[in-house]
Amino acid sequence: MTRCGLPCLLAMMLIISSACAEGQSAAPATSGGESGGAEPPTELIVSAAASLKETLEEAGRRFEASHPGVRLRFNFGGSGALVQQLEQGAPADLFISAAREPMERLVHKGVVAEQDIRVLLRNSLVLIERKGSAHIRQLGDITGEQVRIVAVGQPETVPAGSYAREALEHVGLWEAVETKAVYAKDVTAVLTYVESGNADAGFVYETDALQSDQVETVLRLDPELHSPIEYPAAVPLIASHPKEAAELLAFLSTDEVKDIFEQAGFVVMEGM
Questions:
Q1: Record's Pfam families (predicted)?
Q2: Which of 47, 37, 152, 61 is nearest to 89 (CA)?
Q3: With CB atoms 3.0 to 4.6 Å apart as the test, which of 41, 119, 151, 250 could cross-link to 199 if both were Cys?
Q4: The predicted structure's pLDDT at residue 271
């Protein structure tokens, strides 16, 4: 080998390696980026009153089927608790309350624009017992000895509890019921208390009572005793995906979804 043989050989190897690297970087890119996969779906976060769980999940499945690029993530709970989350900066693309007051709080806080609020539904407040109990025939019976525990949504955070307190105050029974009340985080919990026998009676929405075969409605409260039970909805100003959220809200107004709500016992507002 000549004196320059080894350096020349090393130089040639470097040239070949560089050419290979350039050839690899020049290869055409895949359409899906480095992973070659499709774009991830847009995730919409829907914060909604617990009493809407069954119907919204069904409506959500149908929305996703017709909008394959969107996925829904639900956050159900008491309307007041959900408002507290939003006030503290929790993400949400759509908010549906079980009362006007929680939504009005968000307007006051600048989280929701008043002109964007849309009332979707109405409901009724009922008093339930576990099937076969037969302790209550009229509202005043809940103060009797046979009814030891009454389940009520926490009035400060659960609209159903607020409506119940308002109605009972109207007829002068709240103080008597308050002494035997057990408070729940939402109407779903109230229903569970009565189903399990941990409460003798409870106040829930008519739609909740219809979902259970373990309880029976013993009394439908006169709507004149409390504020109208309305479900306002709005896309918050903090929404990450306002366009898709507006499409979801519009979808909830279609005849297909209207049937879901009506079968569950809701009253659909005209012009929804």
A1: SBP_bac_11
A2: 47
A3: 151
A4: 56
Residue 189 lies in a domain: yes
Q: Is the residue at 247 inside a domain?
A: yes
Q: Please tell me the distance from the alpha carbon of residue 242 to that of residue 207, in angstroms, as a whole number.
A: 29
Is the pTM higher than 0.70? The answer reads yes
- Residues 94 and 46: their CA atoms lie apart, in Å, by 5
Segments forming the whole domain that contains residue 139: 125-225
CB atoms within 10 A of CB 214: 14
User: Residues with Cβ < 8 Å from 76, sequence gap 6 or more?
Assistant: 47, 48, 49, 50, 52, 53, 56, 186, 188
Residues 193 and 214 in one domain: yes
For residues 110 and 158, membership in a common domain is answered with: no
For residue 6, pLDDT beyond 90: no
Look at residue 37 in the predicted model and tell me its pLDDT.
59
Tokens of 202: 């409870």
Is 262 found in the same domain as 180? no
Q: What is the pLDDT of residues 141-194, one digit of tens each?
A: 999 999 999 999 999 999 999 999 999 999 999 999 999 999 999 999 999 999
- Which residue from 262, 230, 269, 247 is spatially nearest to 62, judged by alpha carbons? 247
Beta carbons within 8 Å of 194's beta carbon, 6+ residues apart = 128, 129, 130, 151, 200, 201, 202, 204, 214, 215
**What is the domain-level CATH number for residue 210?**
3.40.190.10
Long-range contacts of 190-193 (CB under 8 A, 24+ apart): 190/151, 190/152, 190/153, 190/160, 191/128, 191/215, 193/149, 193/151
Total domains in the fold of the chain: 2
Is 31 among the domain residues? no
Residues 111 and 234 in one domain: yes
* Residue 32 in tokens: 């899906």
Task: For residue 158, give every residue at least 6 positions away whose Cβ sits within 8 Å of its Cβ, in sequence order, or none.
Answer: 78, 79, 80, 81, 184, 185, 186, 187
Residues 6+ apart with CB under 8 A from 262: 268
